[in-house]
What does this fold into?
Amino acid sequence: MRWFKRLGWLLLGTLLLTVTGAIGGYIWYRQASQPDVAGTMVLPGLRERVVVVRDRNAVPHIQAANALDAYYALGYVHAQDRLWQMQMNKRIVAGRLAEILGPPALDNDRFLRTLGVRRNAEAVYARATLETRAVLQAYADGVNAFIDNRKSALSPEFLILGTRPERWEPVDTLGWQTMMAWDLGGNWTQEVLRMGLAQQLPTSRIAEILAPYPGDKPLRTMDYANFYRQLAPVATAMAQVAERAPSGYVEGMGSNNWVVSGAHTRSGKPLLANDPHLGLQAPALWYFAHLQAPGMELAGATLPGAPLVVLGHNQRIAWGFTNTAPDVQDLYVERIDPANPGRYQTPDGWAEFGTHTEVIRVKGESDVTLKVRTTRHGPVMSDVADPIRAAAKPLGERYAIAFQWTALRPDDKTFQASLHMGQATDWKSFTAALRDFHAPQQNMVYADVDGNIGYIAPGRVPIRRADNDLMGLAPAPGWDARYDWQGFIPFEQLPQRYNPPEGMIVTANQKIVGDQYPYFITSEWSVPYRAQRIQALLDATPRHTPDTFGAIQKDVLSLAVRDALPLLLAAPAVNDAALPPRQRDLLDALRKWDATMAADRAEPLVATAWLRELSRLLFEDKVGEPLFGKLWDQRNVQQPMLNALRDPAGVGAFWCDNTRTTARETCADTIGLAWQRAIADLDRRYGEDTGKWRWGKAHTARSEHKPFGKVPYLNSLFNVRVRTGGDTYTVDVGRHSLRDEQAPFESVHAASLRAVYDLSDLSASRFMSSTGQSGNALSPHYRDWTDKWARVEYVTIGAHRRNPGGDSFDTLVLQPAAPAQKAAP
It folds into this structure.
């Protein structure tokens, strides 16, 4: 017995030592992986001394003696706080994730190698001006100074995956700029969706389910559905390509910005607000910084990986972006020469495919060799799917799909334009800089300290011929010249306004041009609910302040739900006295509700679940589950629903009838069935006690980490979650993924940052992003802003204050290394 007792004590002691060692190791690693934010670092490549003051929110204030040293220091602090994020972005650009993540990342690498983002970045850099090269190199030198000099631990991702950071190159910055354009601009997935829908529906019905902008008529096009039904294998292959593409542009991806002149403010100076809506990620996409040097005073949101203040202000002007969502991507069906598969047909005859070989390294597996083909339009993206060249010969020939995009051009000067934009001092120099802003097209609002406001939508938008009967809605025959681009809309003809008489400008991805505008930008504008709500709130207050602008950014009244509810509540099935009391109480609550999507209420959850089930009943049986899942990704999915319910004997007669039953269902029948299904779904998810149903609990904002966001156990460390209000259509947006059966109401797309600029005192401008400044999940600054972000609170950067952090800040001095002494002769 004593032996067993001694053994027990020995095992207990061993366990305690193990636990103590693990805790001690964790505490050591957590501290060792944090950056040095105080002291002096001697670094090669600097020209003069730089001081970096971090305020209590971990925002760096960089004080340099020249601009290049300021960009060097920005690279250094980006690497200190966001090195893993930057390394992931570098690998995404180059199609090299499989090297560290293994076979699961291979599809992503195939796609990016075929797309050629890194290849194009190299071509852009080769044409860059000396100024651009100098800035990019100074920034890269700063990043690499941290990598080369870091002797302590890095953030835990490097430890978990057993990898070391690679040196940063200028083309990495240019490539990531292109990936941001990928996130923000294009409709190629819509073209693929139309190819798929064409296998199930005629062209006229596709125009109903992908409804035009409210008040617009569908574009007159060729009968593309009939054409694509003859190319069914090609449509199938392209659907695979779309599934394998890296996450990027989501139809209707949006943002808000608005600006008012001093005539509408208490200060007499303009106010400008901006909140870009993007997929939530941890760490946040943005990193706030303040840069000072002779001739430079910049503060605002930077992108780790780029030496730019993308959204922010200098000493004289402030600016903000929203996505224009132009049609700047076209797919082309290329006909392959039956006698020579190395050629494809052009308007001038047969031409050779451009080809080159990519070798993809895969962790734990053999290398993968990829042959990339290009045409006069661009890369052949259908090759990303299983080999398509011999898939079928429906018309006696073989086909491939090529991709054309304004951002894949070697003469792109967007980085240079962004650099000069931050140096602008007035409207003239601001717009002059934007002549070279090529991709992605953005709605930019402007204000200056002299009281001027303006708007411009710079970016390359292709001109399409008058006889183009597809206008970018669907893949075009590549051998027919009428579908070729005819240059780009002249800069002078791009939408712009300066000091409009009403003294207000609002953009929220709504249609920005009238029917008389001479050029085609897109036919797929986002529905105007947010713009309408912002305008109404601006009109309701005679004199605005930063606080009233913050209240607008916090607004969660959904005009979309307000539009839909009366149509749903009018159905006889939901006015039946025989309904269970619990259901009658919920319906009564909806009738009294004002459509405010507040986190602490049940009505937003009930209404959203009802609309979700209704959309399923209207569309899924007509197009099939896979395509319906794509429709659920559409911000505008409510528009065809409303069109059907408003015309139950016309358009609604087709969509409301369930083709899987023998009965003839009406829209009223379908509304009633959707109600019952919604309640059953909510009961299953949240229990039958409706008093405990809360929108915020279901509508948690989920900021997901790359690549550990979906890895069990690790996701709880790296992901960031917080309860929020709003919906897809509110000013304080919280877009959910209805196709996600596990969490259909979670917010995955929201305000990635918020900013309010006060031109009477730019140092009082307000900022907030969705997580925190640090990219290290073990840092106290990894998620310290999340609750404030959910409450729509702000921090100030204090661009013109001598002691920017108040009573709590750290100072790091970057000292240039002494030049190497030449050896004696």
